[in-house]
Amino acid sequence: MRVCVVGCGAVGSLFAANLAQLEDVEVCAYDLDQAHVDAINAGGLRLSGAGEVVGRLSATADAGELPPCEFGIVATKAMHTESAIAATAHAFADGSVASVQNGIGNEEAIAGHVERVIRGTTFPAGRLVEPGHVQWDVKGDTTIGPFEPSPAPMAEIERLAEACTRAGLSTQAVADARGPQWCKLIFNAATNPVGALTGLTHGRVCEDPGLRALVSDLVDEGKAVAAAQGIELDTDPEELIDHAARPEVAYDHKASMLQDVEARRPTEIDYLNGGIVRFGGEHGVPAPLNEAILALVKGLEASW
Amino acid sequence: MSSPGIERVCVVGAGVIGSLFAGHLGRVCEVSVLCRREKHAAALNAEGLRVSGRHAFVARVRAATDPAELPEPELAIVATKTTELEQAASRLDGVWPGAAVMTVQNGLGAEAAFPGRRVLSAVTFMSGTRHSDTHVEYILDTETWLGPYGETPLELVEQVAALIASSGLKARPFRDLRPAQWSKLIFNATVNAVAALTGLPHDFHFAERGKPGDLGDLVFGLVEEGKRVAAAAGVELYEDPWDMNVHATRRGSRHYPSMLEDVEAHRPTEIEHINGALVREAAEADVQVPLHTALCALVRGRESSWL
């Protein structure tokens, strides 16, 4: 089968390089970073850290070059979903497209351009070290399921999950993927901006009693918004947060939002805390601390 | 106090505010400066203190790092940052028993560092930029407000206010400074911490309201929390801190609050003395302040990131 990774940053690279290890999977990647594309085509896509892998795949910054694919895995930053899927949709005329992105609203954007959409949530994380080379910081599970308003067939979802799992990225296909997605959303919204605003790694945020209390308050608001929509969280985000704080898991991980802030790039705050505030507003659930965090990070972006 | 006049003033801590006081007062009375660093004192003794900006002159001052080397003043203006207040207080412990002390620190509670003395509470809104140990630029010529603390007579406050005004700075005496002090506390707790976390100078973003995530909504919420604490503490505010915020953002100065400068220079901030003071007052009055609590935690976390 042929899989196209749309947005080959840290998370996209973890999927692309690992899937490229499988003999029955052909991987291509679409990314706008020409230096990264050139490096991948010249020497392969290298992962180091949690796993040492070099994936051989074809990369391009020109969406017109993409062949028809059975699967798309969209891994861009959330604010680029719309433009990325608009450019690549032709490759998925007969395929199914999964989002493995942060935040909420990505599947809606994808469904504006392709018919068969997969709601996805992934926990592996890393960072781009140099063109063609990604540091793999954190291993973790991926959950995929049909995007309810415009679903991919369950058999296809299972096929993709099987391939990812075989490639070393444990992936489950489920009928309702909203629970895991909101669980990760709440996790990210409660921890990423706190790391971004303080400059602290996940483990250090969790060691600071004042910050850990703030994280819990943010989690509680997110849980209330999920509950109001009838979404059942599959795991308590608090458990994920404490688990990730362990030295052998993600103690030293700098949240992607902190990486963005340090590089003065736009963050995904609108799709994380902004999403909680928006869905909260639609369901009559106030989320004042998430709104405060949203304002602070947007202020930070405005300062550049 | 029947007024024998104030002829000698010592400024303790010559940052921006201390330098502005020392330079200006040096034109109307004998001014000494108690410095923390030898090099700073030597430079002031050699070169005097240059004021530029709204006023331009060089004042002669006498500086030292040991109060024993300075003449006993009638008034000591303690203008250190709150983070250095205790150290300043211990250096004045037992010296100059007759001198009154004026505190101009942000936050609450600086006055209590000088037990047994006549103390004047003050808050200042003037601002400047310190270009070197001997050169300060006077930027915002806004007022300094002062009032009596404890048993300090109002006449002394009026006398000090008149002295400051005669030196070319703006000063206003108050019978009770707490309403003004609390207005400024709420203003600083809100604006300084938001600036420190966002990196934004105090500009139009702070007054922008309406869309989700607009910074002005957060600022408004922080001010509302502060007002509830003031009300519970029985303080009627002198000015609405939200109006102070809007007014300041319209002045167009894009002022860099000191807490933002501290964060950028990786120095300890005044968070404990400003937001911390407000959160402690809130706890005593049993008022919930989740936004200020969050800001406190975030700024403390930020400080710990460079330790």
- The top-level CATH class of the largest domain in chain A is Alpha Beta
If strands are numbered along the chain, what order do they take across the biggest sheet of chain B? 5-2-1-6-7-8-11-12
Strand content of chain B: 15-25%
Radius of gyration of chain A: 18 Å
Structural class of the secondary elements of chain B? alpha/beta
Helicity level of chain B: 40-55%
CATH C-level class of the largest domain in chain B: Alpha Beta
Tell me the number of strands of chain B: 12
Distance between the termini of chain A: 44 Å
Shape by Cα distribution of chain A: globular
Write the H/E string of chain A, N to C.
EHEHEEEEHEHEEEEHEHHHHHHH
Order of helices and strands of chain B: EHEHEEEEHEEEEEHEHHHHHH
Strand order of the largest sheet of chain A: 5-2-1-6-7-8-11-12
Describe this structure in words.
The complex is a heterodimer of chains A (304) and B (307). Helices cover 44% and strands 18% of the residues of chain A. With 304 residues, chain A is α/β, with parallel strands linked by helices. In chain A, strand 11 (142-146), helix 5 (154-166) and strand 12 form a beta-alpha-beta unit. Chain A is globular. Chain B folds into 2 domains: 8-173, NAD(P)-binding Rossmann-like Domain (Rossmann fold), CATH 3.40.50.720; 178-305, N-(1-d-carboxylethyl)-l-norvaline Dehydrogenase, domain 2. Chain B is built from 10 helices and 12 strands. Chain B has helices spanning 16-25, 38-47, 85-92, 154-166, 178-198, 215-232, 241-250, 258-264, 275-285, 290-305, and strands at 8-12, 30-34, 49-53, 57-59, 62-64, 75-78, 100-103, 119-124, 127-132, 135-140, 144-149, 171-173. In chain B, strands 5-2-1-6-7-8-11-12 form an 8-stranded mixed β-sheet. In chain B, strands 4-3-10-9 form a 4-stranded mixed β-sheet, with helices on one face. In chain B, helix 3 (85-92) links the parallel strand 6 and strand 7 (100-103). In chain B, helix 5 packs antiparallel against helix 6 (215-232), helix 5 (178-198) packs across helix 7 (241-250) and helix 5 (178-198) runs parallel beside helix 8. The radius of gyration of chain B is 19 Å and the shape is globular. Classes of the chains: A alpha/beta (304), B alpha/beta (307). Chains A and B meet through helix 6, helix 8, helix 11 and helix 12 of A and helix 5, helix 6 and helix 10 of B.
